[in-house]
Amino acid sequence: MKVKFLKDYLGQKKDSILDLPEDQAKVAVDTAVAEAVAADIKDLDEAVAGIQKSMTEQLEAAAQKITTRVIDQVSRGLKGVRPTLVIGPDREDLDPTGGFKNLGDFAQSVRKHFTHKASDERIKRMIAKADGMDENILADGGALVPTEYANQLYRDVLAESVLFDKARKYPINIGNSLFIPVRSITELGQTSSTGTSLGTWLNADGAIINPSKPVYGRVQMTLNRWGTLLPVTDELLQDNNVALSNFIFDEGGIALAWDLNQAFISGTGTAQPQGILASGALVTVPADVNQPGFTISYSNLVNMKSRLWTIRPGDTSGVVWIAHPDAEAQFEQLKDASGRNLYYAAGTIQQAPEARLFGIPVVYSFHCSAVGNPGDVILADLNQYLVSTKVGGGIEAAMSMHLYFDAAEVAYRIIYRVDGKTARQAPLIIPNSANSRSGFVALAARITVGS
Q1: CATH numeric code, 278-385+424-443
Q2: Residue 98: exposure state from Cβ atoms within 10 A (0-12, 13-18, ≥19)
Q3: 119 Cβ contact list (under 8 Å, min separation 6)
Q4: Pure H helices in 294-400
Q5: Cα dist from 427 to 185, 186, 283, 439, whole Å
Q6: How are beta strands 2-4 and 17-19 bridged, if at all?
Q7: How crowded is residue 443: how many other Cβ atoms within 10 Å of its Cβ?
Q8: So what's the pLDDT on residue 394?
Q9: Three-class SS of residue 242?
Q10: By Cβ atoms counted within 10 A, which residue in 166, 315, 377, 394 is the most buried?
Q11: Which residues, 6+ apart, have CB-to-CB distance to 310 below 8 Å?
C-alpha cells in the first residue's frame, strides 16, 4: 500500500511516497491520525483558554470603570458630608434579659458596678444603649431594668387587675394621645346624620335613594403617668437575688394593679383614667319601694339587667357583674319565684369555674362602694370600656443606687402610662320605652329603709 507523507514523519520527507505492506501502512495511518487529533485538541484548549482570559480581563476592566464612576458621583454628591458606617445590631443587644439570670442578678451587678467600681460588660452595654446617657446621670447612678423583667412585671399587673384584661385595648404607638372613632347616636336606630335610619324602603320602580351618612364622634385617649418608688434594703439585695425578684414583682405589680382597678371603677378622669362610676353613660337603677337598707334584692338585679345595652343584641361576651366582696353573702341567698338559685359560687360549675349570677360572670373588687351605696354592684359591658397604653405595655422600670444611700437602700422606680374611659358619655334612648339603656348600670343607694 502506498502512503504519502504530508509532513516530515518517521524519517520521511514531506510529500514523499512510500510503498508499505498493508498491515504496516495501517499502523502508520492510525498513529498519524491519533497524533493529529491530539494536536487539534491541544490547539482548541489553548484557544478556549485564551478567549476566557480575554473575556475576564475585559469584564474586570469594565467593572473597574463602573466602580470608579459610581464612587466619583457619590463623592461629588456627598461633598462636605462625613460618611457613616452602618452595621447591624449586636446579638447581645437583642437579648431582652440583658444577659442577666433574673432581676436579682441584675440588681447585684448594678450595685457592684456603681459602688465597688467592678466593671460589668452587661451594665456597660445597657448604659451605651440608654440614649447616650452616661453612668453619672443614668437613673441617679443606677440602670434601666432589662425589657424582659419589665415585661414580667407587666404580666403580673394583668394577672392582678380584674378589669384591665377584659377591656378593649387601643395601644398608642406615636405620641401621647389617640382619637378613637365611635358611633355618635343618642337614640337606638337613628344611625344617620338626619336622625333617621341609614336605609329606606323603596316601594316603586325607579324610586330615588336619598343619600345619608352615619354620624361618628371620637373619644380622645391621653396617657396619664402612674409611678412608684420602691426602696429595697442592701441586706435583701445581697442575700437572695431570687427573693429580691419576687419582692419587686409582687409589690410593684400589686400596687399598680390596685390603682388601675380603682381608676377603672371610680377614677375622676382628671390626670387619671375615667372610671365607670364617673361616666356620663352610667344608668342608675332605683331601689325597690320600701326596700330595707343595705340589701340587694332579686328585683334590683332584674331591673339592672333590663337597663343593660350591648353593641350586639344578646352578646354578653364582655359583660360582667362587678361587686364588693361583702355582696356575695346576699347573692348566695337570692332565688327566683320558683325557688331556684340565681348565684353559683366560684367552682360550683365545672365548665364555668368563675362565680356567676344570672349566668353572667361575677368579678369581686374592694374598689366597689360599700354595700348599700351606689356602686356596690355594677353591671358592665367591658367591650364598651376603652383602655390605651404605650405599645409594648408601657412599663418603664429603673433602679437607683444613690437615692437612699444614707439608709443603705436602693430604689426601684416604676412608671406606667395609661388611660381609660367609656366609649359613650350618655345613656342611649330606646324607642317605645321610657327607660334609657347603657353598657354600664349601677344600683341606687339603699342605706335606709325605703330609700
Answers
A1: 3.30.2320
A2: buried
A3: 113
A4: 298-306, 328-331
A5: 10, 8, 7, 8
A6: antiparallel
A7: 27
A8: 65
A9: helix
A10: 377
A11: 316, 318, 319, 381, 383, 439
C-alpha cell at 276: 365607670
Q: Are 265 and 378 in contact (CB under 8 A)?
A: yes
DSSP letter string over 188-203?
TT--BTTSS-S-----
Q: Can you give the pTM of this predicted structure? A: 0.67
Cα atoms found within 13 Å of the Cα of residue 3, Cβ hemisphere only = 22
For 202-217, give the DSSP string: --STT-------B-EE
Q: Which of 255, 219, 225, 254 is nearest to 422 (CA)?
A: 219
Please identify which residue in the block is written with the cell numbers 439585695. 237
- Segments making up each domain of the chain, as ranges: 1-53, 96-266+392-403+409-417, 278-385+424-443
Which of 118, 125, 127 has the alpha carbon at shortest distance from 93?
Answer: 125
The single residue listed with the C-alpha cell 397604653 is: 389
Backbone dihedral region for residue 271 (phi beyond 0: left; psi -120 to 50: alpha; all else: beta): left
Q: Which triple of cell numbers denotes residue 404?
A: 437612699
Task: Give the separation between CA 167 and CA 263, rounded to whole angstroms.
Answer: 13
376 phi and psi, to 5 degrees? -75, -30
| pLDDT by position in tens, the chain (length 451) | 565 555 555 555 666 665 656 666 565 555 555 455 445 445 556 655 666 676 667 667 766 776 666 556 555 554 554 444 444 555 555 666 777 777 777 777 776 766 666 667 776 666 555 444 344 444 445 666 777 766 666 666 666 676 887 898 888 888 889 998 887 778 787 766 666 777 777 777 767 777 777 777 789 999 999 888 878 777 776 666 556 666 776 777 788 888 999 999 999 999 999 999 999 999 999 999 999 999 999 999 999 999 999 988 888 999 999 999 999 999 999 998 888 899 999 877 777 778 999 999 999 999 999 999 999 999 999 999 999 998 866 677 777 766 666 666 777 788 888 999 999 999 999 989 999 999 999 999 998 765 5
Where do we find the cell 394577672? 159
